[in-house]
Amino acid sequence: MSLDITPTLTATEEARRQVEICNACRYCEGYCAVFPAAFAERSFSDGDITQLASLCHNCRGCYYACQYTDPHEFALNLPAALAEVRVESWDRFSWPGGLSRAFQTRGVALAGALVVGIALMFLAIRAIGSAGGDGFYAYLSHTAMVAIFAPAFLFPLAALAVGVRRYWAEVGGTPLRLSDVTAALVDAGRMRNLSGGAAEGCNYEKGDRYTVARKHAHHAVVWGFLLCFASTSSGTVLHYVFDMQAPYGLFSLPKLLGIPGGILLTLGAAGLIALKLKADPALGAKSAWGGEIAFVGLLGLTGLTGLVLYAGTGTALVGPLLALHLGTVLAFFLTLPYSKMAHAAYRLAALARDAQIKAARG
């Protein structure tokens, strides 16, 4: 008696199987950047599949247009297949290794523990005594903030640089030209691929109905994050270049940038979480669902705690609110290379590589 055992395919092998079927069908040729890139090839290496997975924005339009989804024997679910490859690649490229997988599978618990733990640490520092400065610096000196947050900001950048370099080697990237970078930045800024194959938007949270809600929420988060970063940067310039120290007034550059940035970041993150709760989990990487929620939650909480802290200026709540805000910001930066935030770096690299490939084809 013999047993007919069908081996379980790895995420990359399953994605390759599905892409090869798509390559034969070609119904989705007018859809996102994945399909022109796939249809230009006849065979797919592991690096090719990694590149296609990072080009995919999980808009899910191809799934609802496909005639070969379950219960068809081909059982195609390309959004989920590519999502699983993406999550595995983040873990493979992450440095130090293994931390990305830990965050993706236990993100909510890890993020919560980090926020609370770091906030309690800041409260303990405050309990020791006043820092002797004005405003927030009465609770934690400027020197202490720089000593804590500078490494917490630089380390994620270094870790992401290692990851992107590993990604670039796997997908066969060549030396970048300015035109490659420009094309990638323009594509990412417009978020064109979040519209899938229709100008009306994607199918992320409404099944076979189109919507632009996810694209708008992404824009709010991106612009909110950039404005908050610009606010912090402007405060740094004012402090070190013009010897103008915080706290800053309502009509100062840090506040004019930071308040709308915090509002956009909070609203955009809340929108993404609401859409995530509506979306079909079977069309994404199920194992990373909690990690994705934790990442977006940290983004939104960073904006919200900053706004609440500003609103509480001059009250007895400043100490605890500052500890909560700093704990959230520090937790966000420490987890940044291992959360879904890493997808921004890899997707930008994927778009640059896609521009290279198109240029090489002429």
Automatic annotation (TrEMBL):
Q: Which UniProt keywords apply?
A: Membrane, Transmembrane, Transmembrane helix
**Name by which UniProt lists this protein:** Citrate/tricarballylate utilization protein
Transmembrane parts of this sequence: 108-128, 140-162, 220-242, 257-277, 289-311, 317-338
- Coiled-coil segments on the chain, per record: none
